[in-house]
């Protein structure tokens, strides 16, 4: 059994590949000198669909879980050895495999650097954004960690997609919206005052009116941090417009819950010293 297993592992015809290289060129593209080549070959063979069916159905998930560690060990100069395997795992039929990669893509981005991230990870990241909620939550939980590694022009492209996180497969999945509010607080530092006002403000107001109180409480903090950022920015018209809209939308709301929201937002702004008291008044 041992002999047949070793033969299976090192039989190059069994290594899955979606490239147009010849077998010889494919072998060379996977060669490195950091770890024993036989060990890397065995790892790469784990994504072969026939192994998942005959050896272990969880093997692809274990492979995905270990991939950032393998990438760190090999170094970014040897990413070419793992790129095909990563793309194969990212399109795996099992959502648990894709979910595992979604939770670690920000760590892999740190290892690979901005150029490789922009070329090889951003397309995978974009695919995860449109995946099942179980996969999207992995991306959402580390949205700030990933976007801060991108160049500003590439980062701004995601402003148009943040609104999509308000829509989930199951509307009762309120933790998804709570996580979005938490991430938006962190994202305030990555965008200009105009971007915050134009793109993040509508999402924040929508979250403030959420049906679940836990989501609303985080959203009050989000709005107060938004007020602080816009007050510090120039010109100050953004913060004035924002406060006028708070009064119009919540203070003068016909529903008591909207007026209560205004009071809670005022409380948070006051407690966090987001505005000088004369401006607050």
UniProtKB/TrEMBL annotation:
A GO cellular component annotation in the UniProt record: cytoplasm
Repeat found in the keyword field: yes
SUPFAM superfamilies assigned: ARM repeat
GO molecular function: protein phosphatase regulator activity
Region (Disordered), start-end ranges: 11-30
UniProt-listed Gene3D superfamilies: Leucine-rich Repeat Variant (1.25.10.10)
InterPro entries from the UniProt entry: ARM-like (IPR011989), ARM-type_fold (IPR016024), PP2A_Regulatory_Subunit_A (IPR051023)
Protein name listed in UniProt: Serine/threonine-protein phosphatase 4 regulatory subunit 1
Species whose genome carries this gene: Balearica regulorum gibbericeps (East African grey crowned-crane)
């Amino acid at each position: 059994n041992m002999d047949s297993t070793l033969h299976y592992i090192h039989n190059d015809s069994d290594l899955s590949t979606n490239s147009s290289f010849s077998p010889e060129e494919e072998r060379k593209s996977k060669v490195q000198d950091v770890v024993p080549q036989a060990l890397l070959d065995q790892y790469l063979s784990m994504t072969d669909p026939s192994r998942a069916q005959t050896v272990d159905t969880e093997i692809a998930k274990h492979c995905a879980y270990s991939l950032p560690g393998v990438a760190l060990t090999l170094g970014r100069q040897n990413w070419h050895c793992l790129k095909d395997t990563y793309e194969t795992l990212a399109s795996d039929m099992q959502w648990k495999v894709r979910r595992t990669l979604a939770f670690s893509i920000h760590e892999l981005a740190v290892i690979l650097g901005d150029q490789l991230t922009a070329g090889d990870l951003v397309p995978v990241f974009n695919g995860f954004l449109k995946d099942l909620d179980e996969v999207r939550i992995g991306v959402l939980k580390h949205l700030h960690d990933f976007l801060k590694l991108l160049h500003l022009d590439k980062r701004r492209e995601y402003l148009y997609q943040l609104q999509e996180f308000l829509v989930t497969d199951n509307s009762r999945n309120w933790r998804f919206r709570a996580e979005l509010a938490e991430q938006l607080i962190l994202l305030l530092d990555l965008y200009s005052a105009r971007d915050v006002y134009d793109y993040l403000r509508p999402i924040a107001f929508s979250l403030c009116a959420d049906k679940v109180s836990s989501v609303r409480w985080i959203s009050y903090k989000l709005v107060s941090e938004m007020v602080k950022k816009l007050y510090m920015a120039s010109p100050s018209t953004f913060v004035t417009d924002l406060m006028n809209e708070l009064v119009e939308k919540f203070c003068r709301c016909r529903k008591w819950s909207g007026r209560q929201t205004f009071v809670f937002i005022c409380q948070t702004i006051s407690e966090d010293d987001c505005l000088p008291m004369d401006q607050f008044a």
